[in-house]
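Budget justification note: compute hours in this period were largely spent on complex prediction jobs such as the one shown. Inputs:
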Amino acid sequence: MDVKTLCLGVLCHCDATGYDIKKHFESAFSHFFLAGYGSIYPALAELTERGLICCDAESRAGKRERKLYRVTEEGRRAFEDALCATEPRHKVRSEFLVLLYFAQLMPTSRLTEVLDQRLGEIEATLGQLDTMERLEGDRWSPGEQFVGGFGRAILEASRNYIRQNRHLVEDTTDSGQTSGVSDLRVNAV
Amino acid sequence: MDVKTLCLGVLCHCDATGYDIKKHFESAFSHFFLAGYGSIYPALAELTERGLICCDAESRAGKRERKLYRVTEEGRRAFEDALCATEPRHKVRSEFLVLLYFAQLMPTSRLTEVLDQRLGEIEATLGQLDTMERLEGDRWSPGEQFVGGFGRAILEASRNYIRQNRHLVEDTTDSGQTSGVSDLRVNAV
DNA sequence: ACGGTCATGTAAAGTGTTACATGATTAC
DNA sequence: GTAATCATGTAACACTTTACATGACCGT
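Corresponding output:
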């Protein structure tokens, strides 16, 4: 699934400008799909060319013109077809985990920095999710609820795991040579 | 961080052929980084050209020749520098969550199929992790332990969340119109 | 004999990221 | 006034994916 299809999906939900769509990627989609203007505007151009969306360059009272896109009947059908044809893949690309994997090649101070930074990002994303849910959670569709909750569950699990297991890579005292109990990973919340 | 750097990382751990490296991506890295031959072989060629790795086309007794690569001193330094310079990003690209987000545009049967497929993949990956840990877990470095445990924690959290919340998108009975208690997401294990 | 694994690559097409370029409107 | 936000795009580059192409070795 590419950015084009996602843009079509957003427009199936409500009319929007390219700028609005970017905002949507930054909020609702932020924890499972990314896209910048460099992908979104060309996508909108191609979708328009194919007749799946259209736009009226609206002039709004006293304000500058902007392109408000909306999905066509054909576009809506195309999106539903795409949903049925898309393989439900789930890919992670984590430089964070790469760094951790090679922990013994890094100074402990750098490791601590990396772990703290990741924890900070997780907290920030969780905060963002909370804010979104407080503001508009009561209007969420079941799908939005499911995905929002999924994001929260994964983020919390990540945070807890990092907090409880960072000693594995940060402790350089090597007191665990004989593989004592302290070496067991902790998964419990 | 690109495939080149990761190949260098694998070679810092032990000598390997392109084929071996692909296997490493499929096992140890599978849940946080992907690469195919189409990325790996060109990467090895460029790393060789830059003098960061080298290979002796070994002829092994009675067996076909193969290119066993090993890291040079310069390559090892370059990799350590890369580790310190790499931003610890963590990106997810999930068609699975996209589909779930647009659940109301899909037939329930398709949704069930998607959820079951994902659960199957999660179980398969968990099984793979278990096997790896049983076979070689006692030789894992702290970094490998941390990353392996992280993968397990996230996979288990995903599985539990899906099991406990799939009704949000699968129940079409609409009995929750008045936002009763049954609408609450369940996060507990 | 046959299927699976080992083993190495190339080429084209598709995709996304980044930097650049511009300028109006709004809130403080 | 000025900084942030709204708003739209282009072009070059980097990177990955997919399909293609080939063939030896090993176990049964």
